[in-house]
Automatic annotation (TrEMBL):
Pfam families reported for this sequence: LRR_9 (PF14580)
Protein name: Acidic leucine-rich nuclear phosphoprotein 32 family member
GO biological process annotation, one example: chromatin organization
InterPro entries: AN32 (IPR045081), Leu-rich_rpt (IPR001611), LRR_dom_sf (IPR032675)
Family: Belongs to the ANP32 family.
PANTHER family assigned: ACIDIC LEUCINE-RICH NUCLEAR PHOSPHOPROTEIN 32, ACIDIC LEUCINE-RICH NUCLEAR PHOSPHOPROTEIN 32 FAMILY MEMBER E
Record keywords, A-Z: Chaperone, Chromatin regulator, Cytoplasm, Leucine-rich repeat, Nucleus, Repeat
Role summary: Histone chaperone that specifically mediates the genome-wide removal of histone H2A.Z/H2AZ1 from the nucleosome: removes H2A.Z/H2AZ1 from its normal sites of deposition, especially from enhancer and insulator regions. Not involved in deposition of H2A.Z/H2AZ1 in the nucleosome. May stabilize the evicted H2A.Z/H2AZ1-H2B dimer, thus shifting the equilibrium towards dissociation and the off-chromatin state. Inhibits activity of protein phosphatase 2A (PP2A). Does not inhibit protein phosphatase 1. May play a role in cerebellar development and synaptogenesis.
Keyword Ribonucleoprotein tagged: no
UniProt KW Cytoplasm keyword: yes
Cellular compartment(s): Cytoplasm; Nucleus
Composition skew (Acidic residues), residue ranges: 148-205
Domain of life: Eukaryota
Amino acid sequence: MEMKKRINLELRNQAPEEVTELVLDNCKSSNGEIEGLNDSFKELEFLSMANVQLTSLAKLPTLSKLRKLELSDNIISGGLEVLAERCPNLTYLNLSGNKIKDLGTVEALQNLKNLKSLDLFNCEITNLEDYRDSIFDLLQQITYLDGFDQEDNEAPDSEDDDDEGDEDDNDEDEDEAGPPGEYEEEDDEDDGGSDLGEGEEEEEVGLSYLMKEEIQVNKYCCTFALYSLEVVLKSCEY
């Protein structure tokens, strides 16, 4: 599919100025140049044009809010100075799998003052001696090159950062709710009090029962004594 048609498809009835993300991977550029993308995409923050056979960035429009640009697996060999002119706020740039061969080509990225992460993986420039040290010296504003910093620490995934933020929010909610054991202890105390009350009631019932039993026993004893006395008196008469 041609790039221009792909852009119209990706708009999904939205106006260009409403779009913040645009993915055009694997479509066909026009003679190696960008087609159908213009300055009306002024809110665009993420643009991906991977494997679209780009050879030039000359027709890249001004995208002042663009933060992330994916240009991997194209045929770009130079002309990177356009990026600083048209996309001055880039923080992430992926040029892996292109035809970039020397430090002179990359030097044009010095004017991208906000650039933090650069990917040149699978470019010929990576075969240079002291490639990584040379790039970090040349582009002192970047933190990550090909996914790792100067100490070989891997760049964090943005999704992981979001998950950590959610966990922090959950921790704050738990703190506001108070220690989980606090209410359980109060419930236990209430249960203990109710148990004591039940015990006292049982004890009172037991005493009442014994008292009734004792009255019944005394009653039977008196009856038996009267009966015995009556028998003795009758025997005396005889």
